[in-house]
Amino acid sequence: MSRARASRTVENDLRRHGFVHIAGVDEVGRGCLAGPVVAAAVILQPDHYVAGVADSKLLTAVDRDRLFPDITRAAVHWSVSIVSAGDIDRLNIHQASLLAMRQAVVSLVPLPGFVLVDGFRIPELVMPQRPIVGGDRSSTAIAAASILAKVTRDRLMIELHAADPRYGFDRHKGYATKEHLDAVGRYGYSAAHRRSFRPPSLFDAIAP
Questions:
Q1: How many domains are there within the chain?
Q2: pTM higher than 0.85, yes or no?
Q3: N- to C-terminal Cα distance for the chain?
Q4: CA-to-CA distance for 172 and 154, rounded, in angstroms?
Q5: Residue 28 domain flag
Q6: 115 lies in a domain?
Q7: Which of 14, 100, 103, 143 lies in disulfide reach of 6, CB 3.0 to 4.6 Å?
Q8: Structural domain boundaries, residue 60
Q9: pLDDT tens, residue by residue, 30-46
Q10: What's the pLDDT at 201?
């Protein structure tokens, strides 16, 4: 793969300061009209390098699927947390994303000594953390978490498509593509849709 690989520089610096188990955390699905938000947390073994780990958005679906088992085998531990569309509507997407990331972190065994987060500080964590803007492109641990979260969510959206193929979830994964908006205009919202997500373009497609 020719994509820019993520670096272990941040993790190695933290290890030199005495931290042993360093977790990377990321979420996916924040901007979708349908489906859950999914977060993953992973503690990688420092001496087990996984070639090709990069921001999941820079990888093909084939690359992500190939890397998923490589990452899980190289992990001290990993965890995935899923927050449903209904809970997103109840909490709002920002709080739902933070909840998913927090649940993923606290499910790790052992608990990490330090947490690296893509973009946001996670409230109510007992361990130190560092939010890194664009962390999925600069930290191997965060990039690995982004791949686990993306693959997990894509598989869930394919399952939703199998249950209700009208919307094409297997293709756009719940994002607001023209195909998706046209399907919503034709069929209305399904049980998988987030009722609180109504972009301006959607008002032209469906009745308020």
A1: 1
A2: yes
A3: 45
A4: 9
A5: yes
A6: yes
A7: 143
A8: 9-161
A9: 999 999 999 999 999 99
A10: 57
| Tokens found for residue 10 | 């941040």
In a domain, 179, yes or no: no
The tens digit of pLDDT for each residue in 103-120 reads 999 999 999 999 999 998
Q: How far apart are CA 186 and CA 50, in angstroms?
A: 45
Looking up residue 16, the CATH number of its domain turns out to be 3.30.420.10
Q: How far apart are CA 68 and CA 152, in angstroms?
A: 9
DSSP state letters, the chain:
--SPPPB-HHHHHHHHTT---EEEEEEE-TT-SBS-EEEEEEEE-TT---TT---GGGS-HHHHHHHHHHHHHHEEEEEEEEE-HHHHHHH-HHHHHHHHHHHHHHT-SSPPSEEEEESSPPTT-SS-EEEETTHHHHBHHHHHHHHHHHHHHHHHHHHHHHH-GGG-HHHHTT---HHHHHHHHHH---TTB-TT---HHHHTTS--
